[in-house]
Design brief:
8 strands, single chain, mainly beta, globular, Immunoglobulin-like, 3-stranded antiparallel beta sheet
Length: 125
Amino acid sequence: MGINVYYYTGTYAQCMMSLVNSVLYEGTMNTMFDCTTGPNGTSWSVLPTSNSSRTYQITKFNDSVSPALNGFYAFNPNRGLVVLNATTYAVGYNISTAGFYMVSFDPLNANNKTAFKLVVIRKYM
């Protein structure tokens, strides 16, 4: 019994090459993580460093950012995920944008995904 893995030409290959572990200074604005939407969309989620016991769903194969996370992220189906402001901490309900990001490419195949880390550091003068 074999395992069938389906890759979307362009989308999956592009994402595998462009989504790498990254480091940003706190306060960096509008950081793009290039990974275009495939024929079934993409699903983005994050396990933030400010709350490592819960995964937050950013998009769910519909190219729309969850209303609870609108102030942290934007999504462009032709480009990918935008982190609006790199943060290291959570205030109130807010989460940090530093964390472990997961991108799924097919709602029918849970194994068709990739992940990367976003580290955010403070810059002291």
